[in-house]
Backbone:
């Protein structure tokens, strides 16, 4: 358990059964491939997770109880930030300024709590793929998500994804 704020930049990040109580800023900078972790991490404060390295960064079976920002940055190719089997209990913000080919932020088997939204952040989502797969929005909150229209950004809402509110997606 980390009771205060934490900022960490590392070649690899492994998030296993940890509780972050304060503001949490994490960045994966290296070329390693983070194997799926056991998860079970709880983020109680505002959280920012950035993947500016190579390969895959997995965030698995975790709970976000405050606003969560996920960012894909850098110039590396074939990279993915995967948020799987997570409970998103507050607003979700996504950014992608990555310039590499086939960069992805992917939400899979995750749930967005009632009353909250997914939106593009201040950096925008100008490149890469934003994918929702087997993603569930609980409640009927309207979702308005605009990816930057001047870049090469793509939005996929694939099989098994349920949006219970009206959606306005622009890519």
Residues:
């Amino acid at each position: 358990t980390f009771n205060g704020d934490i900022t960490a930049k590392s070649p690899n990040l492994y998030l296993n059964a940890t509780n972050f109580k304060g503001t949490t800023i994490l960045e994966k900078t290296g070329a390693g491939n983070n194997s799926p972790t056991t998860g079970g991490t709880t983020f109680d404060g505002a959280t920012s997770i950035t993947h500016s390295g190579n390969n895959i960064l997995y965030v698995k079976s975790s709970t976000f109880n405050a606003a969560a920002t996920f960012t894909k940055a850098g110039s590396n190719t074939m990279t993915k930030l995967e948020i799987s089997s997570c409970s998103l209990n507050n607003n979700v913000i996504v950014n992608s300024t990555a310039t590499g080919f086939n960069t992805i932020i992917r939400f899979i088997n995750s749930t967005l709590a009632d009353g909250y939204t997914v939106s593009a952040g201040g950096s925008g989502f100008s490149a890469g793929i934003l994918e929702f797969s087997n993603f569930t929005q609980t409640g009927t909150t309207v979702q308005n998500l605009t990816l930057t229209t001047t870049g090469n950004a793509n939005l996929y809402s694939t099989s098994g994804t349920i949006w219970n509110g009206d959606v306005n997606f622009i890519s």
The mean pLDDT is 91. The CA atoms of residues 22 and 133 lie 29 Å apart. DSSP finds no helices and 20 strands in the chain. The two ends are 39 Å apart (CA to CA).
